[in-house]
Automatic annotation (TrEMBL):
The Q motif is unique to and characteristic of the DEAD box family of RNA helicases and controls ATP binding and hydrolysis. Belongs to the DEAD box helicase family. This is ATP-dependent RNA helicase. GO terms for biological process: rRNA processing.
Length: 237
């Protein structure tokens, strides 16, 4: 069974490597995804890719840093959650590997929404996932952190843990996501995010999504992304 899994994984990786990110993809089933993600999407009734998903997911699956700009409601959540699940799956991430992906959101409400989508499409994966948004006892939250593979957080609260929670190890982190980057900046989280990124390993993949493009967003991108691929989706006239 082990051998079979290994072969399937190698086959999947090969399909990803050979994927042309510019090829004309229409549905989630056109993407090289593992069965767990594919069936999670199917069960959640996601079928046709939105423009930003079609542009960003192949690049992200191939391991690129991505800076994606697309208006509110264009489907940016799945544009990063699908690559997060695939990255950890292909790394054969287990409960013993610690924190694999960190998703930063400007507000608690948005973090909860992301977490709910993650639970839906990730239901067939074995990863543990948690929310770090404050409003709970810091110590209680800290005790659960060490067991999480994927965290969705707000910047201030996450930084508090990184600064204060002894034994919370982020050295294995594979992927950082900054969602609603424009709002993160507008809400004055620049220095918290800068400090947060300082704690993270330099060799990682970073995805940054924003509803608008601005000087502040490109400042943040310069600090956190490496040779990013730019994906900008405009409304059709
Ligand atoms: P954004 O973050 O860009 O504002 P969301 O990720 O919150 O957008 O998605 C907006 C809405 O579109 C949500 O209700 C979501 O369920 C829906 N949606 C996202 N992707 C798809 C898709 N491929 N097919 C159908 N609905 C989708
Ligand atoms: Mg969003």
């Amino acid at each position: 069974k082990r051998k079979r899994e290994q072969e399937d994984l190698e086959k999947l990786q090969k399909t990803v490597d050979e994927l042309d990110p510019k090829s004309d993809l229409k549905n989630f089933t056109d993407l090289p995804l593992c069965e767990a993600t594919a069936s999670g999407l199917r069960a959640s009734h996601f079928e046709v890719l939105t423009d930003v998903q079609r542009a960003a997911i192949p690049l992200a699956l191939k391991g690129n840093d991505v800076l994606g700009a697309a208006k509110t409601g264009s489907g940016k959540t799945l544009a990063f959650l699908v690559p997060v699940l695939e990255k950890l799956y292909r790394a054969r991430w287990t409960e013993y590997d610690g924190l694999g992906a960190l998703i930063i959101s400007p507000t608690r409400e948005l973090a909860v929404q992301i977490f709910e989508v993650l639970r839906k499409i990730g239901r067939h994966h074995a990863f543990s996932a948690g929310l770090v948004i404050g409003g709970k006892n810091l110590k209680e939250e800290a005790e659960r952190l060490g067991r999480m593979n994927i965290l969705v957080c707000t910047p201030g609260r996450m930084l508090q843990h990184l600064d204060q929670t002894a034994g919370f190890d982020v050295d294995n982190l594979q992927m950082l996501v900054l969602d609603e980057a424009d709002r993160i900046m507008d809400m004055g989280f620049q220095s918290a995010v800068d400090a947060l990124v300082e704690h993270l390993p330099k060799t990682r993949q970073t995805l940054l999504f924003s509803a608008t493009q601005s000087k502040r967003v490109s400042d943040l991108a310069r600090l956190s992304l490496k040779d990013p691929e730019y994906v900008s989706v405009h409304e059709k006239a």
